[in-house]
Every structure is written in C-alpha cells, then in structure tokens.
UniProtKB/TrEMBL annotation:
InterPro entries referenced in this protein's UniProt entry, alphabetically: P-loop_NTPase, Terminase_6C
Top-rank taxon: Bacteria
Recorded coiled-coil stretches: none
The UniProt record lists the keyword Nucleotidyltransferase: no
Pfam family, one: Terminase_6N
Name this protein carries in UniProt: Terminase large subunit gp17-like C-terminal domain-containing protein
Domain Terminase large subunit gp17-like C-terminal as annotated: residue spans: 266-413
Organism, scientific name: Algimonas arctica
Keywords on record: Viral release from host cell
Amino acid sequence: MTPMFKFQKRNLNSDEQDYVMRNWRAWAREDQIAPDDPDWAVWLVLGGRGSGKTRTGAEWVLDRVRRGAKRIALVAPTLHDAREVMLGGDSGLLRIGFRHERARYEPTRRRVVFPATSGRDPAIAYLFSAHDPDSLRGPQFDCAWGDEFCAWPDPEAVLSNLRLGLRLGAAPRLCLTSTPRPLPVLDGLLANAGTRLTRSRTYDNAANLAPGFIQAMADTYGGSALGRQEMDGEIVRDHPGAIFARADIDQARVTQTPPLDRILVALDPPATSGETADHCGLVVVGRRGEGREADAYVLRDASLPRAAPDIWAERAIALYHSYEADGILAESNQGGEMIETVIHQIDPDVPVIRRHATRSKRGRATPVGLLYARGRVHHVGTMEALEDELCAFGGPHQNGSPDRMDALVWGVSELLLNQTEPRLQFL
C-alpha cells in the first residue's frame, strides 16, 4: 500500500474505505495479481517473510470462486497452518472479500463453504495437510492453493497427488506461495513451460508491517544467506562440489564477539598491482579456547580491490592495532620477505608470521570446511562478499581468485589446526 494510497484512503468515509480495501485489484502490487496469459498451469509466488504471499493466495482463490470454481484444495504444511494462516490469519480467506462473499468454515468437515450465487451450488474449499499426501488421492478440484510448499515434508509427493486431482473445469490451475528453498522440486517447477513466476521482498510490503520490523530483521539477518532467503525471497544455493555450506555458516553465526585468547590479521596480498591485479585478502580472525575445545571467530573482512603494497600494508597494520592483534599472518610463497619488509617499513614493531604453502588452495581449504561443518568457526555478524566467495569455491560458479577465502583459511588454520599440542618430554 503506497503512501499516496493511504492519503487517498483517509479522505473516504468508513463504508467507502471498506469497499476500497475489499477491492483487491485497486491496491494490490503487480506481483500479487495472477498472470493474464491463458497458457499457465502453475503460478509460483516466491517472496520473503511478510511480503504479502498469503494475501496473494487468498485473493486468488476468491477470484477463482467469482469466476465459477466449485471445488478448491487448500494445502498447508499442517492442518493447524491451514486453519490459522490460510483461513483465519489477517490475510486469510475468512478475512477478505465483500461481506456478501464471506465464506463459512466447517471445522468438523475441514472445509470452507462460500455463499451460493445465482441459484448455483456453493463453492467449497477443502483443507489438507502436506504431512498426509495420500489424503489428496481421490478428490478432484478446479483449482488449488498450496502455502509454504517449500516447507512441506515431501513436496514432490504432495504435488504429484495434488496435480493429478486438478481435473475439473476448463483450465484447472494451481497457485503455490512460499519463501523459497533450494529444492529439486522447485527447480522442476521453474523449468516447466506451464509455470509463471512472480517474486517479492519483505521490503515491498513495508507499509503493512509493524514499525521497526524491517529494521529489526535487517539488523539480524541483513546480508546473510538466511536474510537473502527469508527477506529477499532468493533461492540461495550451495554449489555442487563447494567446500563451504551456507547452512553451516548461518548455523554458527553470532552477533557478539566473546573474549578471545588470540587474534590474527590474515593477509593474502596480490602478486601484482594495477587494474588487472587480484583483490588483497584481509580477514581478522580470533580464537577462544585451547586444543580441540577451541573455536575460531571471523571478526572482519577488510579485503581491498587491486591495492598497491603500501595501501594493503597500511590497512593490515591499522587492523592489527584496532583489534589489538597478536600478529599479521601472511603466506611466504609469493614474496613473503617483501611482505614483511613493506610492513616493517611502516611499523617495525608489528609481528609478521610467515607460513609456506605445501598444498593447493583446495587442499588447505578442505580441513577448514570441516571445521565449519562441525560448528567450530563463527562469523561475527555478516560478511556477504566473503561468504559468497567461500560458498562458491570448488563449485562450477567460482569466479576469479578466492583471495578473501584464502586469507580466512590461513587465519583459521593457524588458530585451530596449527596449535602446538602439549607433549611429555623425558629427561
């Protein structure tokens, strides 16, 4: 609902306001209106939380009833979700439409009955739980609305039975509303010529959400893979062959830095400078605990694009002092002595730790990926560019040199994998 629409609405009396608010097409967004071409079978409505997906699905069902649909399936993750969200929620079927169109819920029969019009039989919508795909065997429908289908326990089985039941009327159709997840069944729908897709973000519906909700969500999830999925409605994928998984990063993410026992500024400088140079990887990492009980914390990604040696050296030294780090860690294979020289020309008191690579980037990254999978590496806040690079590395969509990742891998390896274990020494 736009600010201009709200202004115009204030100039109407209560009856006029009610009429306008019930007239969905007067104020719905373009992505909330069903496709107007005649050739689609599935309307896929993907959006972030609170983006208006439920209202979109409910209004579509009511529109189908107005057009003569008589048998409708309503499928939710559970029957409770069907009752409380698809029917009784603020945007549910029992709350929309004009007064003479209001449906009646019959809980004992798990159905919603719409008022009969022009002497015709009433339209009836039946409730189904996605936990019981076999309940969709047998019934037949003119249309169906499935809500949060990406959260169904077995969406492929449910959709298979549901679509076999869409066999009434001249053009049976299915509307699926959901916050997306990277599922094969979703990919199959998107690839189908009979599917039409609309997208929306949480921000698109800001005028209808509580003040502060958007900012609170952005503060909590902004920039993360989870935020891009739950707020922006993106299909966030882990690439085949990738070493790092977004779910592992999100699962271990924290918002506050605990007291740390050791902090390093990990540096992966480019071999050259200028327009064709790689990025300079600069990542601040810390360790809490000792030995196998230790965890690593990624504090900051401060990587630089195509920086000259004096620029990245000054940035690394500034991070060292800002975080009260124990040293700057750098790979010695490519100009290790030069790195130390450049840094000490600016600040001779900064400790520089040099490590020599004996394995490939993938060989070094794999054990760190396992640490992520075990929940032992925590990102403090979100670092979108770094996380995108981590999750693309090793997959088919990796682009360019993974300099941010390389710096992080060196830092985490030094803190967790290169710890000196206590030993007994016989004298």
